């Protein structure tokens, strides 16, 4: 068994022990354990994203060393996600929470899956950047767009995690519109790669071009997932959905319907 798999098994075993019903733990203590593990997972993923962002200003040797560390640390993120999932499912099975506690448990599982995907995106970008090398001298414009993508996607993730940990609905609702900036940068990266490959500007080789596009797509995915986390915060706190501009309303017959903001 490799080190990552061993750590995963240990964390999961600890999770089961924390929910041993014979231990005398109270419902509030078990809920606190779920919340703490979610905070640990969010912090670990955010640190990975911050570290990736820092590599754009690092020297060649240091940069490769940091990227390798990012790849290795992804196993820790996976273990935390599995542990949180076990903790939350056990809490729901044993305590049958209602209201906001139930929404928090459902949201925690959803957010954990999203954070784990962010970790996978960061790991994938790190691997691609090792293969890309430093483009700051040969292709400074494309390198600059990748740097902007890293900064903007990390900013959205920072805001989403802050809203999650504080339960700030107003802050969470302000996050999804920020994704437009990342979408525009992704389109810009695609366009620059195509122009270079077609000989319009630059001399980017096809393999590097594909790696750049892959990185841009992963940065955009990070921003998308962060926006979804922000939307989940609104659901947890207020029990309403804001995905795609939807807001649940109660019909005259007492049935829940979805409304896109327009009046029929």
Structure description:
With 264 residues, the chain is mainly alpha-helical. The chain has a single domain (3-241), classed as Phosphate transport system protein phou homolog 2, domain 2 (Methane Monooxygenase Hydroxylase, Chain G, domain 1, Up-down Bundle), CATH 1.20.58. The protein is built from 8 helices and 2 strands; from the N terminus they run H-H-H-H-H-H-H-H-E-E. Strands 1-2 form a two-stranded antiparallel sheet. A hairpin with a 5-residue loop joins strand 1 (247-250) and strand 2 (256-259). Helix 2 runs antiparallel to helix 5. It is elongated.
Which tags fit this structure?
single chain, two-stranded antiparallel sheet, disordered C terminus, 75% helix, 8 helices, mainly alpha, 264 residues, Methane Monooxygenase Hydroxylase, Chain G, domain 1, 2 strands, elongated
- Widest sheet, order of strands: 1-2
Strand content: under 5%
How would you sum up the major sheet? 2 strands, antiparallel
CATH class: Mainly Alpha
Q: What separation lies between the terminal Cα atoms?
A: 60 Å
> What's the overall geometry?
elongated
Concise structural overview:
The protein is mainly alpha-helical and 264 residues long.
Question: In terms of topology, how is this protein built?
Answer:
Layout (H helix, E strand, L loop, with lengths): L2 H16 L8 H28 L5 H36 L3 H34 L7 H27 L2 H5 L5 H19 L8 H33 L8 E4 L5 E4 L5
Helix pairs in contact: 1-3, 2-3, 2-4, 2-5, 3-4, 4-8, 5-7, 5-8, 7-8
